[in-house]
């Protein structure tokens, strides 16, 4: 309703010439001088204040294979990093040497299946993160953004991960 | 664009169903303005950006709160000249992350075929830094608020420092990373 009134007013002011229309567009203009950080801070304060859920909404939004691959990349990355940090911390704190602790574990005589499984469990996140990492690097080169390509490369990553993990566990 | 042209045409039609000539003029003006603003949104002509200080046109009058997009075009852009000295730090960081990833990728076969101390220390450095930068991105994505961000990054820095120290200690006083993996897999 008010839209129509405004337009009627503007029409009466003879706003049919293009020059005047440009004038209308820039009558009130403000220079933009914010940094990306400031913009992001404003975004987060506003949206947390309004109590909005994050996007994509993880329980309502339908999960897709690329989404799962993406969060798995992050998950394996965090897990591997934590593992390395734990290992480094242990190296600083524990009194004995690495071969000592390795022999300790070997003396506990776990079955061969358990050993094979733990090798698989170690190799799997490394392999996945590596192959998906290569997929990411290809995206960074601008390749493989079409949706079918995204799915295809994703399935290749999964296949390579399983094959490599099984292969490494067998070694 | 097509969507709200038709919705506004129908809105105008609802307001004055009887007065066809007046309606016709209104619709023509609306259509013209929408076409102009669609050109502006694409930022096509240099006419609109006369000076280097890029301006963001706001909605013209308070009355148009209902349909600001009809009269004005909101263009979010800042030329790099406006940003003062314009730091390339973020961009260089991104590139550094990619280069490091490729280096780490290359180190893996080298570690397999040449398990020497030089590779052990390179692996320690590359793994720690790659993990540090990766966790840094996780912090950036999920931690908000100046103080929390500072605290999270400080904690991360401490963790990465201890990790690197521990790996170097392991390389120096113990068997070293390459040998450790080989031993682990030998059983």
TrEMBL record, chain A:
Q: Name the InterPro entries for this protein.
A: SQR/QFR_C/D, Succ_DH_cyt_bsu_CS, Succ_DH_cytb556, SuccDH_FuR_B_TM-su
Its transmembrane ranges are 77-94, 114-131, 152-170
Q: From the Swiss-Prot or TrEMBL record, state where the protein is found.
A: Membrane
The record ties this protein, via Pfam families, to: Sdh_cyt (PF01127)
Read off the SUPFAM superfamilies from this record.
Answer: Fumarate reductase respiratory complex transmembrane subunits
Give an example GO cellular component term for this record.
Answer: membrane
Record flagged with keyword Transmembrane helix: yes
> Which GO annotations describe the biological process of this protein?
mitochondrial electron transport, succinate to ubiquinone; tricarboxylic acid cycle
Q: How does it sit in the membrane?
A: Multi-pass membrane protein
Pathway listed for it is:
Carbohydrate metabolism; tricarboxylic acid cycle
The entry's keywords: Heme, Iron, Membrane, Metal-binding, Transmembrane, Transmembrane helix
Gene Ontology MF terms: electron transfer activity; metal ion binding
User: What does this protein's UniProt record list under function?
Assistant: Membrane-anchoring subunit of succinate dehydrogenase (SDH) that is involved in complex II of the mitochondrial electron transport chain and is responsible for transferring electrons from succinate to ubiquinone (coenzyme Q). SDH also oxidizes malate to the non-canonical enol form of oxaloacetate, enol-oxaloacetate. Enol-oxaloacetate, which is a potent inhibitor of the succinate dehydrogenase activity, is further isomerized into keto-oxaloacetate.
Subunit structure, as described in the record: Component of complex II composed of four subunits: the flavoprotein (FP) SDHA, iron-sulfur protein (IP) SDHB, and a cytochrome b560 composed of SDHC and SDHD.
The identity of this protein, by name, is: Succinate dehydrogenase cytochrome b560 subunit, mitochondrial
Q: Which organism is it from?
A: Cyprinus carpio carpio
Automatic annotation (TrEMBL), chain B:
Record's GO cellular component, any one?
A: mitochondrial inner membrane
Picking any one GO biological process from the record gives: tricarboxylic acid cycle
Q: Which UniProt keywords apply?
A: Electron transport, Heme, Iron, Membrane, Metal-binding, Mitochondrion, Mitochondrion inner membrane, Transit peptide, Transmembrane, Transmembrane helix, Transport, Tricarboxylic acid cycle
Where are its TM segments located?
Answer: 98-115, 151-172
Q: Which InterPro entries match?
A: CybS, SQR/QFR_C/D
Q: Which domain of life is it from?
A: Eukaryota
> GO molecular function terms here?
heme binding; metal ion binding; ubiquinone binding
Annotated residues for binding of a ubiquinone? 142
What pathway does the UniProt record associate with this protein?
Carbohydrate metabolism; tricarboxylic acid cycle
For this protein, the record's Pfam families field holds: CybS (PF05328)
Location in or out of the cell? Mitochondrion inner membrane
| Bilayer disposition of the protein | Multi-pass membrane protein
Report the function annotation for this chain: Membrane-anchoring subunit of succinate dehydrogenase (SDH) that is involved in complex II of the mitochondrial electron transport chain and is responsible for transferring electrons from succinate to ubiquinone (coenzyme Q). SDH also oxidizes malate to the non-canonical enol form of oxaloacetate, enol-oxaloacetate. Enol-oxaloacetate, which is a potent inhibitor of the succinate dehydrogenase activity, is further isomerized into keto-oxaloacetate.
Q: What is this protein called?
A: Succinate dehydrogenase [ubiquinone] cytochrome b small subunit
């Amino acid at each position: 309703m008010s839209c129509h009134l405004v337009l009627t007013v503007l029409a009466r002011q003879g706003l049919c010439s293009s020059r005047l229309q440009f004038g209308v567009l820039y009558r009130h203009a403000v220079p933009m001088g914010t940094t990306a950080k400031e913009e992001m801070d404003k975004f987060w304060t506003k949206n947390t204040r309004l109590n909005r859920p994050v996007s994509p909404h993880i329980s309502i939004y339908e999960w897709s294979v690329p989404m799962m691959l993406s969060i798995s990349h992050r998950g394996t990355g965090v897990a591997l990093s934590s593992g390395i940090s734990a290992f480094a911390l242990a190296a600083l704190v524990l009194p004995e040497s690495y071969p000592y602790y390795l022999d300790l574990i070997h003396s506990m005589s776990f079955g061969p299946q358990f050993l094979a499984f733990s090798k698989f469990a170690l190799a799997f996140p490394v392999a996945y993160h590596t192959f998906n990492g290569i997929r990411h690097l290809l995206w960074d080169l601008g390749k493989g953004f079409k949706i079918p390509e995204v799915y295809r490369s994703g399935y290749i990553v999964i296949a390579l991960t399983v094959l490599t993990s099984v292969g490494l566990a067998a070694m | 664009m097509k969507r709200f042209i038709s919705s506004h045409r129908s809105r105008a039609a609802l307001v004055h169903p009887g007065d066809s000539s007046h309606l016709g003029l209104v619709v023509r003006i609306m259509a013209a303005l929408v076409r102009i603003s669609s050109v502006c949104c694409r930022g096509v002509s240099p006419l609109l950006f006369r000076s280097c200080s890029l301006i963001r046109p706001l909605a013209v009058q308070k009355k148009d709160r209902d349909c600001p997009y009809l009269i004005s075009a909101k263009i979010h852009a800042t030329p790099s000249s406006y940003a003062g000295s314009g730091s390339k730090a973020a961009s260089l960081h991104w590139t550094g992350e990619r280069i490091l990833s490729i280096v780490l990728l290359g180190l893996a076969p080298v570690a397999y075929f040449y398990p020497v101390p030089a590779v052990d220390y390179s692996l320690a450095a590359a793994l720690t830094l790659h993990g540090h930068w990766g966790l840094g991105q996780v912090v950036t994505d999920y931690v908000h608020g100046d103080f929390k961000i500072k605290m999270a990054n400080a904690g991360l820095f401490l963790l990465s420092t201890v990790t690197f120290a521990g790996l170097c200690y392991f390389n120096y006083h113990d068997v070293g990373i390459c040998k450790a993996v080989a031993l682990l897999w030998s059983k």
